Amino acid sequence: MRIINWKKIARFACQQASKQLSDDLGRFYFLRELAGYLRPDYRFKWPDVDWWQDEEFNHYLDRFGELGGMNSDRRWMLRELLRLVANVPGDTAECGVYRGASSYLMCLANRDSSLHEKTHHMFDSFEGLSTPSEQDGSHWSEGDLTCGLELVKQ
After folding, report:
1. Which residues of 127-152 are buried (b: 16+ CB within 10 A; e: fewer)?
2. Which of 26, 41, 66, 83 could potentially form a cystine with 61 if both were Cys, beta carbons 3.0 to 4.6 Å apart?
3. Is 109 exposed, middle or buried (0-12, 13-18, 19+ CB in 10 A)?
4. d(CA 13, CA 103)
């Protein structure tokens, strides 16, 4: 049985594409075409979103190890939603804190709220997930998402 090194094949294809395609838009269309074969249901975003260049936000993502991660758009959306409720009275809360990345954004928003003093509440066992039942599926295992309180406090 022959083992195929997919990473090596992908690296070679990307190197060849980079040589042939000198502009970012051409590379983007190449990725879309490639994804059409590998993952036809994948939805691309246009690569020219302004917030990708936001230094302060990128520093935040880097702080939590998410600069190259898959959730940066969700973090940006949370940031923008928090701006919409900045002047609404009331506290904020997060249930299931993990490493505190979302709570950090909420605390920044609360700090910057000019009209109301807000308190942020964090609820978590800090012991990870409990033993999953059949209803939970097979993606998660007991102890996944464990993160100690001391790490979150940093």
Report:
1. eeeeeeeeeeeeeeeeeebeeeeeeb
2. 66
3. buried
4. 40
Segment holding 45, helix H or strand E: none
d(CA 52, CA 46): 11
32's CB contacts (< 8 A; 6+ apart) are 44
pTM surpassing 0.90?
Answer: no
pLDDT for the residue 63: 94
Enter the CATH code of domain 50-153.
Answer: 3.40.50.150
| Average of per-residue pLDDT values in the chain | 88
For residue 5 the two structure tokens come to: 């090194």
For 84, the token pair is 């919409």
d(CA 149, CA 154): 9
Query: Where exactly are the structural domains of the chain?
Result: 1-48, 50-153
Tokens 């964090």 — which residue? Answer: 122
Residues constituting the chain? 154
Interhelix angle for 72-84 vs 101-112, to 10°? 30
